[in-house]
Amino acid sequence: VGMLPPNLLGLTINRNSGITRESFQGTVAAPPLRFLSLAYTGLDDVPHDLGKAFPNIEALDLSGNDMCDLDGALQNLSAELPALSHLSLIDNPLTLVPMYRQRVFSALPDLKMLDDIANEGTQPSDELGPLGSRDEKMMLRATLLSLTGLPGPSDVPGEETFGRVEIQLGEASVSSDDLPWRNGDLLTDGPVEVKSEEKEVDKKADKTKGKKGKKDAPAVEEAPKVVDVAPTTCVLDLAVPASKALRDAVRFGGLKVSVLRGGGKTAAPDDAPPEDQPREALNLVASVMIPIRAILEPLPSNRNMAMHERAVLISQSGNGVKPQKDSEGQSKVPEVKLSIELNADESIAALLIPIDPSGADKQESPPE
Questions:
Q1: Could you tell me which of 110, 143, 102, 78 has the C-alpha nearest to residue 352?
Q2: What is the predicted pLDDT for the residue at 201?
Q3: Which of 31, 45, 96, 153 could connect to 161 by a Cys-Cys bridge, CB 3.0–4.6 Å?
């Protein structure tokens, strides 16, 4: 740092793996410098003594690094860089945690620009609690709106078919409770087609007549029976600590949605309850990987990241499950519709309300 030109106002050291947290310790100050970029250098924290080396920094770019501790980074920045007005933390794992922008502006109230988006007038809030008091977890909510075109239920008498949905992001996963498997539509967002029992009876009668050599008029093809089924959804919340592995799973992988299918004997009235009946092991029926890199894109404080996806599931062969047929005898294509929300208000409520272990925050009973 001491060898920099005395009138240098900006310095870019991007993609330099030699930069560490200790790189600026013990260096002499470079007062004129106003802009510093240390993007994609692999930093996992704000460099120590950064303010001593560059006390007049107004714009700092730390994009694409591996920083996970938001409160720790804010403590260092607020203490060392009093003139900071522009900050970029894009593509760091810490940008995935709840109330990210509100927390940054609360700790750095003089900041004008964060991640290339202007401060929308966010005011410090006591609800966020002191720095260092939060569990740095990303909350991802997947709301499955429909799962259709799956294989039909078991045709074995007395056997109940059920399904489960699992979402996985990196090494973290969560699965739903057992869901009823109705005609291959695990979840529906509208009317569904079902087989007509009358149509099946007519087909058997036609076959019987044909054996006796009688010529009858051609059978009239009946339209499939359409039944209105109340829309059903499945909500799955996934809480994952902010980490480099999580950021990379979001950036390069995606959210894996898997559908599993199982069955078991329905208990008779005098038998053991259904939950005590033996059930078959769950088999993977179909899955799909949904890209979610968009949740890394910066947004203003007053907007939550939400994605609405419609994807074709890839069926798994060799599991002994036959595909579902439509009214024309064609195999149906398994399909999923879902919405994905990052840090939805309902799922992060517990993280935003400070908990007083002494119980002082509880409401007192009115005096008698």
A1: 102
A2: 42
A3: 153
